[in-house]
Design brief:
Layout: H1 2-8, E1 11-16, H2 18-22, H3 29-47, E2 52-57, H4 60-63, H5 74-87, H6 91-99, E3 105-109, H7 141-147
Parallel strand pairs: 1-2, 2-3
Length: 148
Amino acid sequence: YIYTKFESAGKIIFLVDGDHIVDFYNGSGKNELTRLFGHYSDIINIFGNEKSYAIVVTKTDKFKDLSKTMEDSIEAKEIEQEIYGMLCNITTFKEIVNMAGQVPIYMYTVSVDATMKPLTLENENTEGQREYPKINPWRVGEIGKFSF
């Protein structure tokens, strides 16, 4: 079923959990991303250059404070470049970057709530859970543009 859906799709969006970006240097994030990009590379190899692909890094608000960063600003692009630079340290991501010469591949960073600060002990409640007061999407429109 999934193979058929991939086969008939004109565009494929790969999601990257932003928690792996946060844990990139001090946890298992890099290992998880290496494995994940290996799977994504395999999918691109199977379905080839007749499709467009997007890599979407979620939860960017956990990586950087976005509360004062406009989604179409130079600072937003710098955050995306910083994450891209981190990912370029992963061999399986580099494979995907090398494919981008023949296959249209895009990368986006998004957040469901740009008003949140990166998770610290100060913004946890007494039960140790993060509070989510509202949804304020950041750069999600970029994914909408990709899908057209």
